[in-house]
Design a protein that fits this description.
Blueprint: H1 3-35, E1 47-51, E2 56-62, E3 65-70, E4 74-75, H2 78-89, E5 95-97, E6 115-120, E7 123-124, E8 128-133, E9 139-144, E10 150-154, H3 155-161, H4 165-168, E11 183-188, E12 191-199, E13 202-206, E14 210-211, H5 214-225, E15 231-234, E16 250-255, E17 263-273, E18 276-283, E19 289-293, H6 295-300, H7 304-307, E20 320-326, E21 333-337, E22 343-345, H8 353-365, E23 370-373, E24 389-395, E25 400-409, E26 412-417, E27 423-426, H9 428-434
Antiparallel strand pairs: 1-2, 1-6, 2-3, 3-4, 5-10, 6-7, 6-8, 8-9, 9-10, 11-12, 11-16, 12-13, 13-14, 15-19, 16-17, 17-18, 18-19, 20-21, 20-24, 21-22, 23-27, 24-25, 25-26, 26-27
Length: about 450
């Protein structure tokens, strides 16, 4: 190709690029902007009012947080309101009817459902009147301000706005960070259980001054933090006795330093709603009464025995040299650990080393779920005078590391350290992990006639 022709082609390409950049691209941006229902970014919206035929909801953003103004003054759920605002400002006009119809009722625009007012700082955007949805195509009719035309948007926009005040209210009852909590008190009548933080991962339980089970403490704080309102019973109660909150069934106080609680959650009387059990509840510093799930009381009403450390044997698994399991049927076993993870079984046979290593770990991890008796008293009450399992653990030098007594009595499981001062209830799965006999830890012999493995 001749140099002149190449230069001409290059000039044409450059001209086409300039046309696309300076003419078509701005035009496409302008067209995209005109297709948006509202010319505003979600983060810039500071006020939103929804007027339905039967209700009105007004919201305002202050210091980055959403607040309900009507029908009640209350904190709003930032996530729920944010999702609604994003859906609204993200809506696009999918079709336009350029001539305003004479009868707006045909489109449901005479009585909008809802009428939407949006404020962005000091700017008030044109009102939106949402009408009915089309029978085909899943569109909703909208009139924007006093424009002489009707717009169609996705019906999902209308659906996103169809909220009640309780859908947008903040349902968090207590809000805290675990690391900030220094003390928790659980008051039931005249009984007070206190969890006190000693350092980052050390807590004590009173009465008794027992070390707390860190897993139980973390679980308790998680349950407390997860308590959510399921409904709003009364925003201005005249009589708390009606809800059992004049003398709460349970009062949980959260301290974050100092002598006074930072937050208090009160649980009142129980009632049924749609065949579901509910409880009345409130924050001590808020006037309104809410409803919570019945599980809240079960997860928050704890005894010292449930919260204290219930390790049965304080065992260092690496020190274990021998483990002996005695069973009433005589099918127990004694296993001795050699170097590393090698094991030998008393009476011969090839042991399952992995099973025995796991058994040591399960023995170390055995914990009670609650305190059954302290001191133990008559062990026959729990079946521990003739236990289902007696597990004796010794170190590599033959020194005694302790003996576990474990049994099942009725539908409950009990355990204790032999000669110890406490009988614990325990979980069924913990019993199952320890409920092993010789055949469970012994490799099966090869079947008759099977070839022997080749010698190395």
């Amino acid at each position: 190709m001749k140099p002149g022709r190449i230069a001409l082609l290059a000039l044409l390409v450059a001209a086409l690029g300039a046309y696309l950049y300076f003419v078509e691209l701005p035009k496409s941006r302008e067209e995209a902007a005109t297709k948006k229902l509202l010319d505003v970014a979600a983060d810039d919206v500071t006020g939103l009012t929804l007027v339905f035929p039967d209700r009105e909801i007004a919201l305002e953003k202050k210091d980055g947080r959403w607040q309900l103004l009507r029908p009640v003054a209350a904190p709003a759920d930032d996530t729920a309101v944010g999702a609604m605002v994003s859906s609204l400002v993200g809506a696009t006009v999918q079709k336009t009817i350029d001539e305003l119809p004479k009868n707006l009722a045909d489109f449901g625009l005479d009585k909008p459902d809802p009428l939407v007012r949006v404020v962005a700082g000091d700017r008030t955007l044109p009102e939106l009147r949402l009408g009915r949805t089309t029978t085909v195509g899943a569109k909703a009719y909208v009139r924007r301000g006093d424009e002489p035309k009707v717009l169609l948007v996705s019906s999902s926009t209308r659906l996103a706005l169809d909220k009640k005040a309780e859908d947008l209210r903040d349902k968090v009852e207590v809000d805290f960070k675990d690391d900030d909590v220094t003390k928790v008190t659980i008051t039931r009548g005249d009984t007070v259980v206190t969890l006190t933080r000693k350092d980052k991962d050390t807590w004590t339980v009173d009465p008794g001054g027992y070390p707390a089970d860190l897993t139980e403490v973390r679980s308790y704080l998680s349950s407390l933090r997860s308590t959510r309102a399921m409904g709003f019973a009364d925003d201005a109660p005249a009589d708390l006795a009606r809800y059992g909150l004049d003398t709460p069934a349970l009062r949980v106080a959260i301290y974050t330093g100092g002598a006074t609680p930072a937050q208090e959650l009160l649980l009142g009387s129980e009632f049924s709603e749609k065949d579901q059990k509910r409880l009345y509840a409130k924050r001590a510093d808020r006037p309104g009464v809410v409803t919570v799930g019945e599980w809240a009381k079960r997860s928050l009403d704890k005894t010292p025995g449930q919260l204290r450390d219930k390790t049965v044997l304080a065992l260092d698994a690496d020190r274990v040299g021998t483990i002996a399991v005695e069973r009433p049927n005589g099918q127990g076993f004694t296993a001795t650990r050699g170097k590393g993870t090698s094991w030998t079984l008393e009476g011969g046979g090839v042991p399952k080393a992995a099973v025995l290593e796991r058994y040591v770990d399960d023995t170390r991890d055995l914990r009670g779920s609650d305190v059954a008796a302290e001191p133990p008293g008559d062990l026959s009450r729990f079946g521990l005078d003739h236990p289902a399992l007696r597990v004796t653990v010794k170190d590599r030098q033959g020194g005694d590391l302790g003996t576990l007594l474990v049994t099942k009595q009725g539908d409950k499981y009990y355990t204790m350290r032999a000669g110890g001062s406490t009988v614990f209830e325990t979980r069924d799965y913990m019993f199952t992990r320890l409920d092993k006999q010789r055949s469970d830890v012994l490799e099966a012999p090869p079947a008759a006639g099977a070839p022997k493995p080749a010698s190395p």
